[in-house]
Amino acid sequence: MRVRLLMIVLGAVLAAPMAGATDYYLDGEGGSDEAAGTSPDAAWASLDLLARMTLQPGDRALLRRGTTFRGRLRVSGSGTEEAPITIGAWGEGDKPEILGTVLLNGWEPHSGDTWRVTVPEGLFVGQKKLFSVFEYDDAIPVRLQREDTVPTERGRFHFDAETLTLHAATTDGRSPAEHRLEAPVIEQLLDLRDARWIVFEDLALLMGNCRHVVLSGCEDVTFRNCASLFVGFYGNPNFTLRDCRRVQVLDCFLYESANSGVLLTDGTTQCRVADCTIERAASNDGITCHAGPTLDDGTRTRLCGDANVLEDNVIGHCPEESIDITSGDHHIVRRNICHDDGNPGIIVGHDSDHILIERNICLRNRGGIYALGKPDEGARGGNRVIGNLCYENTYPALELGSPDAEVLGNTFVNSRERVVVRITPDAMRPVLRDNILANLDPTIPHALMHFIWCTPASVEAQFSHNLLFHAADTRKPDVFFAQGALIRTDDGSFSQESFEVRYATGGETIVGDPGFASADDGYFRVGADGPAAGIGAGEGLPTYPPHLIDGSEADRAEILRLWGKSDG
Questions:
Q1: H or E segment at 458?
Q2: Which pLDDT tens digit goes with each residue over 80-103?
Q3: Is the domain of 390 the same as that of 509?
């Protein structure tokens, strides 16, 4: 009884505000900057007063839900582990929105459906350029297309940086004054430096002219259930982490970035991106552990740190990869869904080593998982590819190009334009065991595995207890590999039996239909009594969301759900 009473008292103490801490309230509609700001009935109206304060451990700054704030979110001060600072929301309704935009007045007709206005120079925070313009009449903004000259078609705009003149043609041709036309003028909606123990939660950051969130030298900062949408300029991520430690981006929705959703660089170490949905990057990747520019002498600069964790994210429609690791070692890439990318879903390259790639799903990308590396850049390899599912990718479901890789218990299905697994000469001493390599479509004309410019002997490969299956009728002349020849090497094409005889590897490998019990639901699990029992990806794969954003009409409802926003 005494222990229970002590726990109840302790819980009450932890839940209560810290003695001396202050709650500050902001209301974008009903507040006043003349008010005290310390109660909902006396809330501030803008972010300006918050920017002038140095918050103390345990303080909270709360923005009213369903209201809009324009400008930068500037936060000074640091919390402690016991009493973090919180920047969050109060009230009911949608997440409070922080916009990097202005509504412009004084539109004049130019010609046809095109209108013009001069943007006052003093409105810009950062570059005096407009990289995007949005119609925000509906719940979801519409980005107008940027043109190099004055537009003549609807839904487009042009900005002359010398005269600060904006020409715009709305989507319906009406005057911009009849729309909510948002012009992004503010860069870096949040620029946080050398901060400790701050939690940002339940906020939406929209339509910054460049970057949205930039953290430099921060430690133990958390973003939880936030949304960052419609970044303005090519080359700018939703989140940039520079020289950070233990920063977390959790359960956030990052949509229409102008570059990566999350960029980790400049020594960023032990950070975590988890349970996020990252969709429709305009360029580059969903999540990037990246480096800066390479010098003329080949030196790579601004390398990412080590031991970052990227897990349980859904990432898709990136021009390049969902997850791109080009610097830093010992990262964990686990239980992510990577879909519909212009490059492979997951790439490890350059000098990154000892990366764990575990129980991810990669589908409909230009490739599945590429565990590469460049020996001349210092790649030592040691990457582990365990329990992943890759299917319906155009290029190989797996490509190995760095030494000492372990590939265990994966399922690789239906690579459309290349072999299922490709191994290069840099992939020395690979171990492939308990994997399923299958092409279920008989029209796919490729072998299952290719040792390109090498042989199993030259790279010292260990290949055992895998299952191989190709549905093609290999007697047809339009299938390029000879009957039963499922594996290619630099020496030629081989059946499983001849491969094992030739290279003394491949023992206990099964050739036959894996008997997938659940291919239709996108998991490709094997039956308990089938020939592939105990082989391939089993339990622990990520769960598909209610709707995978795919360009269908259902996208709208899913975007609003992830945003935490009502429709209307």
A1: helix 456-459
A2: 999 999 999 999 999 999 999 999
A3: yes
